[in-house]
């Protein structure tokens, strides 16, 4: 048996074409959505993600505003840039690219973002609304990677309600909010949130109908850990050097042989990453629609 591929590129393309229509409707009413990015320092990975976000915006008709600060920027510089983004009328939503260079207090910076402009859903108010289950008229953006994972499973008709989900990793952007999202009313999964101190990770994965790995340990999840037919989502990113070509490439947390056991498998790259970017655009569009 070979798993059905959860194709993040194709699914993100479908999401983006739906968004493009909503954006042209907004534009015809004179509303122009604009995504800002704040990047501090010159980490090549972060640079390439930010560049990707600007390309996505151009593709769907969202304006994008790029603010880059040098690695030498102080916390006062970052605060000032956030204040400018909060007050810039052309910026309807923005993100602070993580991780910030060492020496910056990320949580303190996230807290300075205007919650109404928080395109990542990482401001404490928006994370609090996720805990409280508040949706609707209030703009309560969901963190992009968790939202992208759920969107992809739903578009492939993978059942979630009542199913057991094992999440590997408890980080701010993926594992922690994903556990909150999957257990909300309406999704109704049962979640095991595992981390580096989990005693028997293989056993926790074996009970799962849906496995999400978001730790950044290359090929951590082995085929004999996976229940036959389970849906497996590969989120972790590790940069490795190909021993044959000597070129750098990206690899995920899932051993490739898991494809022989799983029912659905998201490749990495080409799976959750593109969905994360599509959900960022979706948050910007929703915020603009609510303001209209
Ligand atoms: N404030 C903030 N919000 C984020 O959402 C955020 C962040 N900081 N910091 C870093 C992580 C990582 N992340 C990715 C998004 C898309 C891809 C993506 O589209 N990857 C492509 C491959 C890209 C390539 O080849 O370089 C793929 O999976 O196919 C990857 C990684 C968002 N993050």
UniProtKB/TrEMBL annotation:
Protein name in the entry: Bifunctional protein FolD
Residue span(s) of domain Tetrahydrofolate dehydrogenase/cyclohydrolase catalytic: 6-120
EC id: 1.5.1.5, 3.5.4.9
Annotated keywords: Amino-acid biosynthesis, Histidine biosynthesis, Hydrolase, Methionine biosynthesis, Multifunctional enzyme, NADP, One-carbon metabolism, Oxidoreductase, Purine biosynthesis
InterPro entries linked to this entry: Aminoacid_DH-like_N_sf, NAD(P)-bd_dom_sf, THF_DH/CycHdrlase, THF_DH/CycHdrlase_cat_dom, THF_DH/CycHdrlase_NAD-bd_dom
Function noted in UniProt: Catalyzes the oxidation of 5,10-methylenetetrahydrofolate to 5,10-methenyltetrahydrofolate and then the hydrolysis of 5,10-methenyltetrahydrofolate to 10-formyltetrahydrofolate.
Gene3D superfamilies: Leucine Dehydrogenase, chain A, domain 1, NAD(P)-binding Rossmann-like Domain
Pfam families xref list: THF_DHG_CYH, THF_DHG_CYH_C
Gene that produces this protein: folD
A biological process term (GO) from this entry: methionine biosynthetic process
Recorded catalytic activity of this chain's protein: (6R)-5,10-methenyltetrahydrofolate + H2O = (6R)-10-formyltetrahydrofolate + H(+); (6R)-5,10-methylene-5,6,7,8-tetrahydrofolate + NADP(+) = (6R)-5,10-methenyltetrahydrofolate + NADPH
Cellular-component GO terms for this entry: cytosol
GO molecular function: methenyltetrahydrofolate cyclohydrolase activity; methylenetetrahydrofolate dehydrogenase (NADP+) activity
Membership in a protein family: Belongs to the tetrahydrofolate dehydrogenase/cyclohydrolase family.
CDD domains in UniProt: NAD_bind_m-THF_DH_Cyclohyd
Segments forming domain Tetrahydrofolate dehydrogenase/cyclohydrolase NAD(P)-binding: 143-290
Binding site for NADP(+): 169-171, 237
Recorded superkingdom: Bacteria
HAMAP family the record matches: THF_DHG_CYH
């Amino acid at each position: 048996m070979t798993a059905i591929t959860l194709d993040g590129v194709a699914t993100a393309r479908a999401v983006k074409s739906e968004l493009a229509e909503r954006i042209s409707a907004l534009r015809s009413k004179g509303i122009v959505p604009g995504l800002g990015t704040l990047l501090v320092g010159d980490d090549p990975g972060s640079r390439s993600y930010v560049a990707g976000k600007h390309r996505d915006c151009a593709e769907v008709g969202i304006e994008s505003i790029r603010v880059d600060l040098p690695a030498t920027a102080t916390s006062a510089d970052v605060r000032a840039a956030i204040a400018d983004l909060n007050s810039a009328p052309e910026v309807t939503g923005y993100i602070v690219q993580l991780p910030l260079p060492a020496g910056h207090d990320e949580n303190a910076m996230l807290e300075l973002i205007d919650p109404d402009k928080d395109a990542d859903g990482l401001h404490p108010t928006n994370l609090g609304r996720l805990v409280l289950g508040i949706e609707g008229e209030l703009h309560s953006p969901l963190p992009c990677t968790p939202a992208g994972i759920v969107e992809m499973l739903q578009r492939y008709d993978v059942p979630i309600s009542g199913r057991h989900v094992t999440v590997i990793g408890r980080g701010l952007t993926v594992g922690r909010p994903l556990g909150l999202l999957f257990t909300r009313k309406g999704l109704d999964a049962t979640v095991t949130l595992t981390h580096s101190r989990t005693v028997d990770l293989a056993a926790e994965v074996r009970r799962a109908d849906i496995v999400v790995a978001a730790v950044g340990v290359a090929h951590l999840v082995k085929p004999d850990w996976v229940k036959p037919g389970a849906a497996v989502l590969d989120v972790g990113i590790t940069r490795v050097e190909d021993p044959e070509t000597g070129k750098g490439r990206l690899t995920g947390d899932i051993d490739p042989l898991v494809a022989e056991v799983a029912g659905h498998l998201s490749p990495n790259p080409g799976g959750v990453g593109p969905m994360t970017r599509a959900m960022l655009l979706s948050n910007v569009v929703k915020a603009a629609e609510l303001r209209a």
